[in-house]
Every structure is written in C-alpha cells, then in structure tokens.
C-alpha cells in the first residue's frame, strides 16, 4: 500500500468524497482533482490524534460490549441455576411421593395378606421352605460357566476347581439348595451334573437338540428343569437322569424360574413373552406380555407374589404374579439386560447389562440405588451372596468382580477363565 502524500509543511492531503475522509496517495491526487473533488490539507499531527481518538473509541466500545456480555452471562447463569434448583427440588419431591406410594402399597399388601385366610397346604409349603433355608449351610462359594468350555468353582477369593467335560461353550449353571450338586448346560446340547464334594461328574443328560440356555434344581433336588434354543423345557429325574417330560414352547427358552411349591415353572422366551407352565402336566397356565425383546432373566420373589424380568429391550419389569398384571417398569440401563438377582430379604434387585454396568434397585420404590462400573465388556451374569454381603458379576471381559453390597465398591477381581463368561450362580 502506498503512503499518503505528505507535503514539506507536514500536512496530509485528504479528500472528503467519502465518509470518513480518504487519505490520498501520489497518483490519486490528480485523479481526484480531475473528478472535481475538494481536497483539503490536514496537519499530520491532527490526523494522528484523530486516529488515536478513533482507536480509543473502538477500545471503549469493546469494553462496553464485554461488560454487557458478562452481565447477560451472569444473569443467564443465575436463571439456569435457579431453574436447576427448582428441578432438583421437584425431583426430590417426586422421589418422596414415590416412596410414600410404595410404602402405602406395601402396607396394604401386608394388611391384605393378614386378612386373607391362607390354605393350610400353602402354609405348610412356606414353613417347609423356611425350615429348609434355615437349616441349609450358608453357601461360601459360587460357580461360573464360560466359552472356554469349563465350569469353575470359586470361594470369593480364588478359584477352587475347574471342571472340564463340555465340548462347547457353557451357557448356564445352577447349584442345588443343599449345596451338594452343580448342574451345567451349554452349546454342546448337554446338561452335566457334578458332585461338589469331590468335583466328580455324576451324569450327562442328553435330549435337547440345540444349545441349553437355562437350568434350575427343584428345591428338594429331586428334579432338574432345563430350557433350550430348541424351544423345549425338559424335566429330568435327578437320581436316574431319566427325562420325565418335554414341554414344547414354540420359541427359544432363554431363562427359567420355579415357584416354591414346585408346582409351576416360569420361562422367559425369545418371542418377548413370559410363560407359566404346570410342572406336573406340562400345560401352559398363563402368559405375561409387555417386553419388546427376548426375556433373558426371570426371578420370583416375596414368596412368589411378584416376578421380575429382564429383557433385550433394556428394561426390567415387575409383575404381580398373583393378579397377572404388570406392576412397574424400571428404566436405567442403556442396553440389553442380561441377568437379574433378588436379595434374600426381598428388598433389592441387582441387574447386569450389555452396557457393562451392574445396577442395584430398591424393590419397594422401584428406584435405582447404585450403579457399579468396572467391567470393560458386557455383564452376562449377576448374583448375591446368601448373607447379602457381596454381589458377584461376570462378563465377556473374562473377569468376575466381587462387590461390597452396602458400599458398592469393588472388593476384588477374579480371573481364570480364558474366554467369555456367560453364567454365574451364587
């Protein structure tokens, strides 16, 4: 850029043809004169002072804009803070209301239970179950099943024994109520029964034509119930290993549960339904519908009055098992729910999910109490120790994590399996 014309007396030639006036360079003076513009000389010092004043004005405007911006920001921040505080108070009020509703519901349920005359046979079954649990030694171990084809027995601190025999991935495990026996099922379509005293294989149950997804013992350990991807539930006699009954469900059986009176089987299925079956007849009793994905876990609790179910639709649903109605839906997981466990006192529910988390829920209120994060891949199985001191979770990161139930802190991480862990039984 050329410099403006400065004469010997220290003036600058300017033209007022534009606003503000334009400083003229040498070759521009004649052009502006020919165009009839009025040129005006201005002292150099005056021009500099004028420019300085303009610069100062710009700076002052900038300060004013910044000050106004800060004032607006502070006002907005105050408004946002007030609104957040209001939302927080509203949320707390809603929580208190929910607690109040559930306390009222629980009180009504207990009052109703006391007012209803319970048949003698039901009382007898409940007493037998309580006696059995009371006189069963506290289980100080748990088991896991893995894609490495093994079953492992753990004692909350280290592995006690790896059991080998399956020819494919182990998908499910179960421990008998008397802590004497272990059942495992897997993708080799077989169910294997183990003696937990000497870790010997007792029997192999063959009959399923596809992967075995779920296995449970009856409370008296006389029978074993299995569910598989072949769409059947099979009932076996423990002592002989004989297959007693085959129930066709028309869909893959992903999970199983049984009532305390041993008269009813509950199955979670791949067609998004929960079906209830008569144990002795094999006939379907009723169906629970509501999930929009396969039902991966079913758990009965509160003396079989309620049923909890987890699904690939990322929700947990609580059902009134007696009235065949849905009580509530628990939202929190951001991916598929893989497994559920209920605490011995029926107050808490623990869930595992494909979002790598373990969550603790309060059953009375339906509120999420804690989120336990530690797995690096999906959580495939969860369990609660009989004394409610620990939560055990297993995942596809080949790890088992033992958590302190009360604090939600990790106690230890157990490793030993060489591939994905699909099942944990506590």
What labels describe this entry?
single chain; 426 residues; alpha+beta; four-stranded antiparallel sheet; 3 helices; 31 strands; 23% helix; elongated; disordered N terminus
Note down, in words, how this protein is organized.
By secondary structure, the protein is of the alpha+beta class. It has helices spanning 26-34, 44-115, 120-134; strands spanning 11-15, 22-23, 39-43, 142-146, 150-154, 159-164, 170-175, 181-186, 190-195, 200-206, 212-217, 223-228, 232-237, 243-248, 253-258, 264-269, 273-278, 284-289, 295-301, 306-311, 316-320, 325-330, 337-342, 348-353, 357-362, 368-373, 379-384, 390-395, 399-404, 410-415, 421-425.
How do you describe this structure in short?
By secondary structure, the chain is α+β, with helices and mostly antiparallel strands. It contains three helices and 31 strands.
């Amino acid at each position: 850029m050329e410099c403006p014309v400065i004469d010997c007396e220290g003036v600058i030639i300017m033209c007022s043809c534009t606003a503000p006036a334009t400083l003229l360079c040498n070759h521009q003076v004649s052009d502006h004169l020919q165009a009839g513009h009025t040129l005006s000389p201005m002292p150099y010092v005056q021009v500099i002072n004028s420019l300085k004043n303009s610069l100062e004005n710009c700076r002052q405007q900038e300060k004013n804009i910044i000050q106004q911006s800060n004032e607006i920001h502070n006002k907005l921040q105050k408004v946002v803070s007030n609104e957040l505080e209001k939302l927080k108070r509203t949320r707390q009020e809603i929580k208190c209301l929910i607690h109040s509703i559930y306390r009222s519901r629980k009180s009504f349920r207990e009052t109703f239970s006391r007012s209803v005359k319970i048949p003698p046979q039901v009382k007898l079954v409940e007493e037998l179950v309580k006696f059995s649990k009371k006189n069963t030694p506290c289980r100080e171990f748990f088991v896991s099943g893995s894609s490495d084809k093994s079953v492992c027995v753990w004692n909350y601190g280290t592995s006690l024994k790896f059991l080998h025999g399956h020819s494919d991935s182990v998908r499910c495990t179960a421990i008998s109520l008397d802590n004497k026996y272990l059942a495992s099922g897997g993708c080799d379509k077989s169910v294997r029964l183990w003696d937990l005293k000497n870790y010997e294989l007792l029997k192999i149950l063959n009959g399923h034509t596809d992967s075995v997804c779920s296995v449970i013992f009856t409370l008296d350990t006389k029978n074993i119930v299995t569910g598989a991807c072949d769409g059947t539930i099979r009932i076996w006699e423990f002592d002989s290993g004989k297959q007693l009954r085959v129930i066709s469900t028309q869909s893959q059986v992903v999970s199983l549960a049984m009532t305390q009176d041993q008269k009813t089987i509950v199955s979670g299925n791949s067609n998004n339904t929960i079906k209830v079956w008569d144990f002795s007849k094999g006939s379907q009793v009723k169906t629970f519908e509501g999930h929009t994905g396969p039902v991966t876990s079913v758990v009965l609790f509160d003396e079989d009055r309620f049923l909890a179910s987890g699904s690939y639709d990322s929700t947990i649903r609580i059902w009134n098992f007696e009235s065949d109605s849905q009580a509530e839906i628990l939202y929190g997981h951001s991916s598929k729910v893989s497994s559920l466990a209920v605490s011995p006192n029926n107050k808490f529910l623990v869930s595992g999910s494909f979002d790598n988390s373990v969550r603790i829920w309060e059953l009375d209120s339906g509120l999420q109490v804690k989120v336990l994060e530690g797995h690096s891949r999906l959580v495939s199985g969860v369990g609660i120790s009989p004394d409610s001191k620990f939560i055990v979770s297993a995942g596809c990161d080949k790890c088992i994590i033992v958590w302190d139930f009360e604090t939600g802190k990790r106690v230890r991480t157990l490793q030993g399996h060489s591939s994905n862990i699909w099942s944990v039984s506590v």
